[in-house]
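User: Here's a chain of 281 residues. Predict its fold as tokens.
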Amino acid sequence: MRRTLFVNPQSGNDEPTVEDLKSAARAFDVRVHVLAEDDDLGALAREEDADVLGMAGGDGSLGAVAQAALERDLPFVCIPWGTRNHFAGDVGLDGDDPLGALAAFRDGVERRVDVGRVGDRVFLNNVSLGNYARLVHRRERRRQRREAFARMRALLISLKDHRRMERFVVDGQPVRASVVLVANNEYKLDLFSIGARERVDEGTLSIYAARGLRRLRWTERKAAHVRIETRGGRVRAAVDGEPAHLESPLELRIEPGALRLLVPPKEREAEAASVRALEDE
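Assistant: Prediction complete.
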């Protein structure tokens, strides 16, 4: 079996190093491709001669390889290698143990999880419009100019300015909000931000709209498909935390159980125990 792991060297922390990851991957007979600055990750993943595709990176890097795995009906391995690793955490992987996650290449158990799509683009976590998307684009411009920037505090920062309300039309209904978020399954919400997901296999999109200055007011509904119109033809968005320009109207949908995610056996056992606990409540 041919196994390939793509590595985004810009995503990882100092420990373990890229060399540590490469060495550990070789023990599982995994070919490692460390991305260069100009590499087209999506094209590489679609063309790679492999039976299993994996990605070591943050949330923004995972989607391109997951999409290639979907198109080719191949298993996908997620190695948490970013700053926050939201998707990895929500599927039960230990974000502090990327080397341990490599076991999925050899002894992995296949778990079917949902993906979202906006147009033809896959998202694993969410698509955000409004203030948070604006901050993501600002961050990227600063990164490109090699300027230092402070780590964003997600939606808390983006929602402070009550004057930044925007108009959206969601499935024909006018909505004024500072942020509209469409998520692959349901997030826990607290006062200031989105949290984690208990499930990534319930087969639904969760649509959130946030308003407010001092106390955020969230409205939420679920659907398999949602259409969002904005003023103007092109809209700035954040797709899994990465900047994107999308054409309005946006058509978003859920694809239940589409991704063949491989997880190490211990993660699969922990996930099953969590599901049983929820059923018992």
